Amino acid sequence: MVAKDSIELDCKSLEEEKTAVDAQITEIPSIFRIPQGTLSDKKPSVSSSSLAIPIIDFADLAASREFVVEKVKDASEKWGFFQVINHGVPLSVLEEIKDAVVRFHDEDPEVKNSYFSRDFSKTFIYHNNFELYSSKNGNWRDSFAAYMVPPDRPNPEDLPVACRDAMIEYAKHVMSLGGLLFELLSEALGLNSEMLKSKGCMKGLLMAGHYYPPCPQPDLTLGVSKHSDNSFITILLQDQIGGLQVLHQDCWVDVSPIPGALVIYIGDHLQLMTNDKFKSVEHRVLANRDRPRVSFGCFYSSQMNPNPTVYGPIKELLSEENPPKYREMTIQEYTKGYIEKRLDGTSHLSCYRI
């Protein structure tokens, strides 16, 4: 069905792609084809150990918190990305949330489509690309997303049975881990450990399950286009398929899957608040031919939910030598512009530079 160029633009779900792949199509629809040269502009670098994503062992916290804080500081300043192991989230919980993504995406189309929406204020939505109405190209993935914080959300009945219990359980662990991460990041900035939490960085948590079907022409599309995140921080669980890449020193570097690890990356809001001390870096996901890929992201941001807090560079980090580089913003204002701008390979932060 999707091999036809006449694909309907109001059909955004990748269910058609999955069905078509099962039917052994050999060409992807034109709407998912990216401009020639997009994938070949920068090559992955895997040969040098200096271009390996930092790995931080949280088991070291018991011996030396200062040692871990220094590792977090170095990774946040130089990479904006790091992986954590021994983070306290049970392996069984990690496996269950990945299984929940597969369960939902294996549901009958009519079940999934009952959740299809482009209203991002809803508790739970199912969609393909949040920016596809304004973008020239679609990404080769399906996603569902739900706001799990603030505390009055969600009503469990608003979540699909296929992933309800797993999401509620995972949210508990991620909120605990997020609290620790914001403490370590605050200390890495030379601030009180409660500083970032006191600024409302944990007011909102958006959780998203991503399913990337096998692609017959992976060189012609992307699982996710190049972008930085509309968040304070993001916690990502990925399976063992691979495909996530981060832009570092003008090279695309693979974020190699580590069993039981979680990938942490700095979002746009935190780069703004730290006045460029911590980096929100561009990343992307490659499509693959052979097997489906599953990931689960947790975004600390209120996004479209009401949040009157005004964010700007943290005053304690500013000085005559380090004046503010950004104007203030609200998360809702930033998110609105982020969605309208679409994933065009440029950072929305540039709109807020002084």
TrEMBL record:
Q: Does the keyword Oxidoreductase apply?
A: yes
Assigned keywords, A-Z: Iron, Metal-binding, Oxidoreductase
User: Which residue intervals define the domain Fe2OG dioxygenase in the entry?
Assistant: 203-302
Q: What is the lineage of its organism?
A: Eukaryota, Viridiplantae, Streptophyta, Embryophyta, Tracheophyta
Matching entries from Pfam families are given as: 2OG-FeII_Oxy, DIOX_N
Q: Which molecular function term from Gene Ontology is one that the record holds?
A: metal ion binding
UniProt xrefs under InterPro entries: DIOX_N, IPNS-like_FE2OG_OXY, IPNS-like_sf, Oxoglu/Fe-dep_dioxygenase_dom
Q: Determine the domain of life of the protein's source.
A: Eukaryota
| Organism expressing this protein natively | Arabis nemorensis
> SUPFAM superfamilies, per this entry?
Clavaminate synthase-like
- What this protein is called in its record is Fe2OG dioxygenase domain-containing protein
For the keyword Oxidoreductase, the answer is yes
* Cofactor(s) needed: Fe cation
What family does the database annotate?
Answer: Belongs to the iron/ascorbate-dependent oxidoreductase family.
